[in-house]
Specification:
Length: 474
C-alpha cells in the first residue's frame, strides 16, 4: 500500500496552460536561508499520485563513475558506498521500462544504448548544437524520459508518442512523458497494490522492539492508523528528514537533515535574430557532458550542459527575479520572447556541514514544525559556477546571441539522509535501509552522499529498484 499526500489526477486534467499547473506543485511553506537560498515550490517539488515526476523535466543522464568516487579522486566531497557497475543494470532496466529516448551512439559512453530514438530537437537545441560545433565541444540528443513513438511496457498502460507541445513541466496529457502514474504505479496496482491519495503521513508508531509498527496519516480531515511490517519513506530530501526530525526517529548518527545539497543550475539567455520559438518541443533536447572534467578546471567535479526552452509565464518569473525587470521594461523584453533561447548547467555541489535542514518554530496545519533549509555555495561551487558561466556565455556569443544575461539559480533537493557503510556517519545503508530502525527504508534523493553532476531522477529510480530487490530478498 502507498500513501500519497496529493490527489490522484487524471492526465486529461493537465492543460496547455501554465496558470493551471499549481495543483501539481508542492507549495507548502518552507523557510529558505543561507548565502545562496534555494527557491522552493514549482522549481523542485511535486504533489499528487506520481509525485515530482508529474512536473519534472524528464532529463535523464546517468551518473558518471568519477562522480561516485569524487573524494578518492579529488580529496573533496564524499564517495558513494557503491560504484557505477552496481547501478548500470538498474539504469538499463529503468530506461527500458519507462521508455527513454536517446541517441543511437552516446559520445561519452560507447556501449550505451537507448530503447527509443531521440525526440526532435527544438529551437534552442539546434542553436546549442551549432554553437558547440563552433567551439569544438561534443553535444548530442539528450536522454529523455519521453517516448518518441507509441510505447507500451509490460504491465503498464499504452502511451502515445510525444506531440512536441512543450508543456512537460505542466503535466503530460497523453502520457508521453514518463511519470510514475503511467509507469510503475499501474504495474504495482496490477500486482495488488493499493494507492491512497490525499493521505498525509504525520506519525510513525514503534513497537516494544523499536521497529515501526504503524503509520498515522490524515485523510478527509480524520487521522487514521495503518499497521505495517515495513515502511518505505519516499518524500524527498525536504519532507523525509522533516518528518524524521519532527518524530525524533532514525537519527542516532545525528546526520538527518545534514549535508543538504542543491545543484548549481545557472542559465545563460540571449536574443537571436531569427525566431526560435523555444516553447515548442521537448524543452531540453540537447546535452553535452564535455565539462564533467574540464581540462582547465580549478574545482572538483564538473557539470552537464543542456539546451533550455521555458514557457512564457515561468520565463517571465525568471526574468523578473533574475534580471530585475518590472512593469513596462519586463513586458518590452517579453515581447521578444519568440527570439530568446537559453542554455543551462547541472553542476556538482559538495556536501557541507554548513548546509543543513532544521526545524523552525513555525508549525503547519498538522502541527509539524516547518522545514528551514540553509544553503550556500562554498568556494568550489563558486569556481565551478564562474567557469560554467564563462563557457556558456562564449557559446551563446559564438551562436550570434545579443543581449546575453545570466540567471543564477539552484535546482533539486538532495542529501539530508545520506547512505553509507557505517551507522555512525550515515542514516541508511547502501540499499536504503535505516541503520537505526531495521524495517524503515528511505528511497529518494535524500540518500545521496554527494550531488553528482547528473540530474537526480534516473539515479533515484535505479536506487529504488535496487532497494526493492534487497527488501524482497531480506
Amino acid at each position: 500500500m502507498a500513501l500519497e499526500a496529493g490527489p490522484n489526477f487524471d492526465p486529461k486534467q493537465f492543460a496547455f496552460d501554465e496558470t493551471l499547473a499549481d495543483a501539481i506543485y508542492w507549495t507548502d511553506e518552507r523557510l529558505s536561508g543561507g548565502s545562496t537560498p534555494e527557491a522552493f515550490g514549482a522549481n523542485n517539488s511535486g504533489t499528487g499520485v506520481g509525485g515530482s515526476t508529474l512536473h519534472w523535466g524528464a532529463f535523464v543522464p546517468r551518473a558518471d563513475a568519477r562522480d561516485l568516487r569524487l573524494k578518492s579522486e579529488s580529496g573533496q566531497g564524499s564517495d558513494w558506498p557503491l560504484v557505477l557497475s552496481d547501478l548500470v543494470p538498474f539504469y538499463e532496466r529503468v530506461e527500458a521500462f519507462i521508455g527513454v529516448s536517446g541517441p543511437a551512439a552516446y559520445p561519452w559512453d560507447a556501449g550505451r544504448r537507448y530503447p527509443l530514438p531521440p525526440v526532435p530537437r527544438n529551437g534552442p537545441a539546434q542553436i546549442m548544437a551549432m554553437a558547440c560545433g563552433r567551439q569544438a565541444l561534443r553535444a548530442t540528443d539528450a536522454p529523455a524520459a519521453v517516448v518518441s513513438r507509441p510505447f507500451t511496457a509490460e504491465g503498464a498502460p499504452a502511451r502515445n508518442a510525444c506531440i512536441n507541445c512543450g508543456f512537460c513541466h505542466q503535466g503530460c496529457r497523453n502520457g508521453a512523458k514518463t511519470s510514475m502514474d503511467v509507469t510503475y504505479l499501474p504495474l504495482a496496482v496490477a500486482h495488488g497494490a493499493e494507492i491512497r491519495p490525499e493521505s498525509v503521513v504525520h506519525g510513525l508508531e514503534r513497537g516494544a522492539d523499536g521497529r515501526i509498527s504503524a503509520v498515522v496519516y490524515r485523510a478527509g480531515g480524520v487521522d487514521r492508523r495503518q499497521r505495517c511490517r515495513a515502511v518505505f519513506l519516499c518524500a524527498g530530501a525536504v519532507e523525509t528528514p522533516r518528518l524524521l526530525l519532527n518524530l525524533g526517529l532514525a537519527n542516532g548518527s545525528d546526520q538527518v537533515g545534514r549535508n543538504y545539497m542543491g545543484h548549481v543550475a545557472t542559465q545563460v539567455w540571449g536574443r537571436f535574430p531569427d525566431a526560435v520559438r523555444m516553447n515548442r518541443g521537448y524543452p531540453s533536447s540537447l546535452i553535452s557532458e564535455d565539462m564533467l572534467r574540464p581540462a582547465d578546471a580549478d574545482f572538483a567535479g564538473g557539470y552537464l550542459m543542456q539546451s533550455l526552452g521555458v514557457e512564457p509565464l515561468t520565463f517571465a518569473n525568471s526574468v523578473a527575479r533574475g534580471r530585475g525587470l518590472w512593469g513596462p521594461a519586463l513586458t518590452a523584453y517579453l515581447d521578444r520572447y519568440e527570439h530568446l533561447a537559453g542554455i543551462g548547467i547541472n553542476g556538482e555541489t559538495l556536501p557541507s556541514e554548513a548546509n543543513r535542514l532544521t526545524l523552525s518554530d513555525e508549525t503547519d496545519a498538522l502541527g509539524l514544525r516547518k522545514a528551514r533549509i540553509d544553503f550556500g555555495y562554498g568556494p568550489n561551487e563558486a569556481r565551478l559556477n564562474a567557469h560554467a558561466t564563462r563557457v556558456m556565455t562564449d557559446l551563446w556569443e559564438a551562436a550570434g546571441a545579443q543581449d546575453i544575461w545570466v540567471l543564477e539559480r539552484v535546482a533539486h533537493t538532495l542529501g539530508t539522509c545520506r547512505m553509507g557503510r557505517d551507522g555512525d556517519d550515515s542514516v541508511v545503508d547502501p540499499y536504503g535501509r535505516s541503520f537505526a530502525i531495521d524495517n524503515l527504508w528511505i528511497s529518494d534523493g535524500s540518500t545521496f552522499p554527494s550531488s553528482l553532476a547528473a540530474n537526480p531522477a534516473l539515479t533515484i529510480m535505479a536506487l529504488a529498484l535496487r532497494s526493492a530487490e534487497a527488501f524482497l530478498a531480506a
